[in-house]
Amino acid sequence: ELYEGRAGIRETLAALALLGAVYMLSQVMNGVVNCFGTVYNRTVTKEADKAVFQKCQRLSPEEYEKTGRLDEIDKAVNGAKSAVSLGMTLLDAVFFYGAYFLIVGGYLTRMNAALGWCVAAIFLPCLFSKFLQGHVFGKAEDAAAPYRRKSEYYERCLTEPSYLKETRLLGVNDVFEARFRQAEEKLGGLRWKAGLEKFRYDMAGNLVNILGYGVILYLLFVSVMTGEISIGAYSAVLASINRVQSFMEELIFELLEYASGSLASVDNFYAFLDEKQTERTERLSELPSVHLERVSYRYPMAEREAVKDVSLDVKAGQIVAVVGENGSGKTTLCRLISGSYEPTKGEVTCGGKKASALDGTGISAVFQNFCRYQMTLSENIGISCGERKADRSEDKAGQTADQMEALDRKVELSLEAELSLEAGLSLEVGLSLDDGRFPEGLDTMLGRYFDGTELSGGEWQRVAIARGAARPSLLIVMDEPTSAIDPFEESALYHMFRKTAEGKTAFLVTHRLGMARIADRIIVMKDGQILQDGTHDELIVVKGEYKRMYEAQSAWYR
């Protein structure tokens, strides 16, 4: 009646009031979205990232030896960033644009059934083309993941301090620049190919859109000329059609454009999270003995076995040194014993439980390739403790002075108990809190990333040793724990390792045979197999690999 000019004052005012209410509601909702949208986006993105991190933590360490798995993780991380935005986009598409099209489509159908069907005929083919584009981008994402990882790695080699000193000194920047460009060119080629296919689908969608719009205008013209609708109704319908056209272009060529490009990434994100993983539920409950029964292990894509047909029995509480040349299988053997890797043949048990089923509780390690956490000294050491004893930067929040002092004392006492702190909190690993290197004591930030104190390689390794020793454990693996420490100072650490290993089943991987003498038992490995097994005194009198290595090292000190 409004369009025909037959509505009364009451109907007109009611229509205006409804229009005003809808307008006010839209402004309020826009304000809510602008105010809370960013906060919501960040919160949900954080949860999506957290889900990926937790999934990665549940993966077996050997999964990271597989290139394909690394590509899947990269795609999942990339998809986590798009998941929230895609969700918001689809909500907009359904509840805003979809609702609008249904209302306007219903109105047009009331006036002329053909008009409503024309709107659907325009929209659905364009929507289908966007889903086809999603498939195109999915294939492109699968192909792009390895090149993107290469590009990111070469970029780190050119920009990160840990690489920069060496690459600049050796003059190899141009090598990494060339490889970075090659990876980017591959990525660009994949994007170009996907873009061409997208362009073809877009052109088909645009053609359908234009034809549909032309048909609608023709039907409106015919309806006016035949008297089916008035000029007022024609104007209202034309305005609605123009708005529908504008919204449709916005939906299809902006929102759905983004959605089709992100859909594959988000699908990778959910596929990664939905993968079934074998849960590690076993725990060490007592000092474990270790048993290996004809164990072999081959790394993914490797041609030969790193460990071959190894059988071994270690009594609970024994300290075992594992020695041998590079590539003899020492580190791999210890990874099998700690449950990090699952043998390809045979079985490894710790305390009567399958090693690969252990959840890590009661197991500690000191790695040759240790981490340099950009955190405080206290956090660097205490991060390995199950109760996070040394995470004081968070624990202090909201605490009173007395509570903070008590917390500090608790941390210091826990560190003293685990690390045998000397007077003045001087660590037996060779780090003194009184020599000026740590101006804030345990709260001194380490590393330059957050403007902290940078340590030498040997000092960082001492921190790593302290971290491994601080973790409550029944089984400890120490893999070349003194590789970065001065040999003159190394002897001072021998008794500390012996003390750290007391009351535990311990494995010590080392090239330095002098350090192996602290062990109750020495295993000599070569080509993935155990050649000799015994004490230092037993092995040194036998003409074999151990005596040859010992004499070769001793010759340098004569």
UniProtKB/TrEMBL annotation:
<dbReference type="InterPro" id="IPR003593">
    <property type="entry name" value="AAA+_ATPase"/>
</dbReference>
<dbReference type="GO" id="GO:0016887">
    <property type="term" value="F:ATP hydrolysis activity"/>
</dbReference>
<feature type="transmembrane region" description="Helical">
    <location>
        <begin position="12"/>
        <end position="33"/>
    </location>
</feature>
<keyword id="KW-0812">Transmembrane</keyword>
<dbReference type="InterPro" id="IPR003439">
    <property type="entry name" value="ABC_transporter-like_ATP-bd"/>
</dbReference>
<dbReference type="InterPro" id="IPR027417">
    <property type="entry name" value="P-loop_NTPase"/>
</dbReference>
<dbReference type="InterPro" id="IPR011527">
    <property type="entry name" value="ABC1_TM_dom"/>
</dbReference>
<keyword id="KW-1133">Transmembrane helix</keyword>
<dbReference type="InterPro" id="IPR017871">
    <property type="entry name" value="ABC_transporter-like_CS"/>
</dbReference>
<dbReference type="Pfam" id="PF00005">
    <property type="entry name" value="ABC_tran"/>
</dbReference>
<feature type="domain" description="ABC transmembrane type-1">
    <location>
        <begin position="1"/>
        <end position="260"/>
    </location>
</feature>
<dbReference type="InterPro" id="IPR039421">
    <property type="entry name" value="Type_1_exporter"/>
</dbReference>
<dbReference type="GO" id="GO:0005886">
    <property type="term" value="C:plasma membrane"/>
</dbReference>
<dbReference type="GO" id="GO:0005524">
    <property type="term" value="F:ATP binding"/>
</dbReference>
<keyword id="KW-0547">Nucleotide-binding</keyword>
<feature type="transmembrane region" description="Helical">
    <location>
        <begin position="90"/>
        <end position="108"/>
    </location>
</feature>
<feature type="domain" description="ABC transporter">
    <location>
        <begin position="290"/>
        <end position="552"/>
    </location>
</feature>
<keyword id="KW-0067">ATP-binding</keyword>
<feature type="transmembrane region" description="Helical">
    <location>
        <begin position="207"/>
        <end position="225"/>
    </location>
</feature>
<dbReference type="GO" id="GO:0140359">
    <property type="term" value="F:ABC-type transporter activity"/>
</dbReference>
<keyword id="KW-0472">Membrane</keyword>
<feature type="transmembrane region" description="Helical">
    <location>
        <begin position="114"/>
        <end position="132"/>
    </location>
</feature>
<dbReference type="GO" id="GO:0034040">
    <property type="term" value="F:ATPase-coupled lipid transmembrane transporter activity"/>
</dbReference>
<dbReference type="InterPro" id="IPR036640">
    <property type="entry name" value="ABC1_TM_sf"/>
</dbReference>
<protein>
    <submittedName>
        <fullName>ABC transporter ATP-binding protein/permease</fullName>
    </submittedName>
</protein>
